[in-house]
Every structure is written in C-alpha cells, then in structure tokens.
Amino acid sequence: MADKPALLSMKGICKDFPGVRAVDAMQLEVTEGEVHAVVGENGAGKSTLMHILAGVYQPESGRIDFAGHNNVRIADEQAAQKLGIAIVYQERSLFDSLSVAENIFAGRQPVRLGNWIDSGAMAARAHQLVQKVGLDVHPHAPLSSLSPAEQQLVEIAKALSLNARLIIFDEPTAALTEAETKTLFAVIRSLQKAGTAVIYISHRLEEIFAIANRVTVLKDGRWQGTLPIAEATPAELVRRMVGRDLTNLSHSAPINNNQTKAPALEVRGLSDAPSRRQRRTTLTDISFEVHSGEVVVFAGLAGAGRTETALSIFGARPFRTGNVLLNGRAVHIRNVPQAIAAGIGYLPEDRKQAGLFLEMSIAHNVAAASLKRFGSIVTSEKAIGRVAEEYRERLGIACHSTRQAVRSLSGGNQQKVLLAKWLLVEPRVLIVDEPTRGVDVGAKAQVHRLLFDLAERGTAVLVISSDLPEVLTLADRVIVMAQGRIAGQLGRDEATEERIVHLASGMAAAGHPS
Q1: Concatenated DSSP letters for 410-451?
Q2: What is the CATH number of the domain that holds 433?
Q3: For residues 298 and 478, what is the distance between their CA atoms, to the nearest angstrom?
Q4: Quick check: helix, strand or coil at residue 196?
Q5: Same structural domain for residues 168 and 110?
Q6: Each residue of 204-236: pLDDT tens digit?
Q7: Does the predicted model carry a pTM greater than 0.85?
C-alpha cells in the first residue's frame, strides 16, 4: 500500500487546547483503497487528529493534502464532506426525534417540485443503506426505538450515503455484536475493493489485525511509527502505545470459596411483560445469585436481556413477578434511590447518557451519589475537592484539575470517574455494564484490577460484557443469557468462548446438545 500515491497526507499537524498540546507534529499518510488503522491509548490524540481531518477542529500548524488538493484548509464538516471525507463518530451524532431515513440524510434530503422533500426517494435510498450494513429496520422507524447497537449501524449507513473517498471509523464496533462486527467488516472490504480508503480506530487489537493493511501508533499526541500489518505484532503495538511492555493483561480473579453465607444478591423468578408500544426484551424466570467477594459475568448477544435484568434489579425498570434478596432478605426496590440506599451500585453501558453529568466537574461527578456525606444543608466544596483528589490519585485519572468538566476527559478517564463515584458509595453489590467499552488496553487492565480489588474487599460484583476475552478474564462464574432467559451457567474452569457462544446463540435452549 505504501508504494501507491497517497490519497491523504498530513504532516506536522499541531493542535492546542488550554494548557495542553493534544497533537504535536503529527503525521499520517493513507493511500487509495487502504484500510489504515490508528491506535493509541485514550488521550493519545487519535480523535483530535480525526476531528481536524473532519473539519471539527482547526490545527495551529501543519499541512494537509487530499486527493490532489494541496495544502487544503478544512474549515468545517461540510467542507470535509465536499472533499470526500466522512466520519463515523464514536459518540453518536444522531437525533432521537427523527426517523432512520431523516437521520441518514439530515441536511441533505432529496427534493422534488422545488423545495418539497421527496420522502419516498429518501426512504428507498435509506432502505438500501440500512440493508447494506445488515440492519433490519423500517426507514420511517424513529431512532429512539432502536438499540444503541442499531443506532451505531445507522451512523455507519449515514457515512456510506456520502459516497466519500475516505471514511473514518472511530471505535465503530464498541456497541456491536460479533455478528454485526462481521457485517461491518464485509462493508469495509467492499468499500476497499471500490477504491475507498478507510481510517479505522479501535482499542481492539484483534480487529486491527483482521481488517487493516497498515497501522499507525500514537502516544501522547505524537507519531510513534507506521507499520505494515504483516510486520506488526500485538506486543509491539502495545509497547509503542504505552512506552513499556504491558504485563498481566489477563489477571485471574481469586476463586471465591467462602460461599456458605447467604448470597449478597439473589434474584428469584424475575419476569416481566413487555409493553406493546415499546421495543424491549421480555425477561422470563431469571434466577441467579452472587456472593460477597465473587465476580459473576453476564454474557450473551445484544438484546438477550442482560441490561434489562440489571436495570430491573437497580429499580430503573419495572418487572411483573419475582423477588430480589440482599443478604438473604427480600427487598422491594421500586426506584434508583431505593437501590442505592439498599447498597446497590450500577455503572451503565452508556456512561455519557446515563452515568455522568458531562458539564459538571470531575469532583462533583465523583460526589454525585454521596452528597449527604458532604453536608446536610450546605455541601462542603473543600471536602468534595479533597475526596476527588484522593480518587484522582488512586485511579490514575488523567486531568489537569478535578474542577474541569468531565466532558473534556477521554473515554477511559470518564469511566474511571464513574468508578470513583461508586467506590465512594461503597456498595455491597456493584453492577457494571460493559466496563471497558471504548477504553484502551492500559485503562482496561486498570479497570479489571479495580473490580478484582472490590471483590477481594467483599463486594459482590456483577459484570455485563460482550467482550469474550474479558468475560473469561474476570469471571468466577459466567451466566449466559439468550432471548430473555438464562441459557446456562459456567464455572471458570469450564467456561470457553465456544461454550459461551453456543449458549448465547440459543441452540442449547432449542434442544441442541451442549
């Protein structure tokens, strides 16, 4: 690929934010029809560099050449699109109130008879695009009715609608199932055959080796090298990303043998009845338990009911029948404050929408679930700041000050802030939904270590994860869900990726041998 003429050349790119140089003398070269991966830890400058290319940010210095246009200035996103550059953002840029078709063609609707929107043509084209990305939804369906994974596929369909010469995928599989990821890879390969170049950003190194031709490594806003994928190894990429060999990426949690006491959390026969107006999974006879000091991981495909189960336990989703017991006693939790008061914490899958107050400071996010401890009438800002500093040091939150807004942090550091919030609460039961989605390998190892530490201190930890290596790394036991039911349970010694996938596919429930 390197011997072909460059479609994109970025040289000497610098970008400053208040108090920090986010990108420093960066370089990147992509050829026509190439899948070029960009990797690095959270905060390495990947998203900043892509935002410059997409016209969101303007660099302080440097040169960009694209498709025969020399030293171009990409003033805004419209200018990028006119050049032939599209981006699929890690954080969705869609509108819940619009339909699938309206989101795909927002600001670019086909018109007829002057300025009348041709809704029929728009729906027909949108239908072709959603089919191309493997999504079975009606073009007129409201975006709010789709799952996060389905919304991500709509985002990808929107990028395809631009017929761009270069498409940037920023963590595109973070919310996708294995089957949806395979569909995405098929789409990328078809784009490649048609001559479209792709920049692919992912923390999942196995994806890089499956799809990329070359890989560029960034660290601390600087270029660390570009390698043909055939000459790269995971160890080499990690070493360049973090500046050292990263060991102990596959810790094994201590097997919990002290299970003679009543379970810290027990769920018996939890079931619900879905509303006809809402698309939501029906839960049927969900029964399981988690002991103090144990890490239990829920595995399964998207839509299997894992998050719905967690939300029901946490009082954020009603259920029809069943009981929740804490330390052997039945509790009646009907809302989130009651769950927190009972000693249950919950880190949601979508930390930005449901877990954090993005415009608030790091310190106030850490204190958000424990405000009473900082004063009953007037909260002590000094005490909040002191506690936030303690967790900043303990969790290694990369920030200039705990007074800065959470929005300014990388995804991995936002996840650490959310963990700090619940560590401060000291819950007896902690539910963590997709704990390392969108975080780098170094932050992932830190998050895993924190979960192990919590278990060793006696917390019952319930994890939901779609990352099979993570499932096997964390779990004392694996509970696999399929179609709103528990398809099976596996101890650590018997859990394998093959067995988990077999149960998650629903084959065991359908009578197939396991």
Answers
A1: -HHHHHHHHHHHHHHH--SEEEEESTTTT--HHHHHHHHHHH
A2: 3.40.50.300
A3: 6
A4: coil
A5: no
A6: 888 999 999 999 999 889 999 999 999 999 888
A7: no
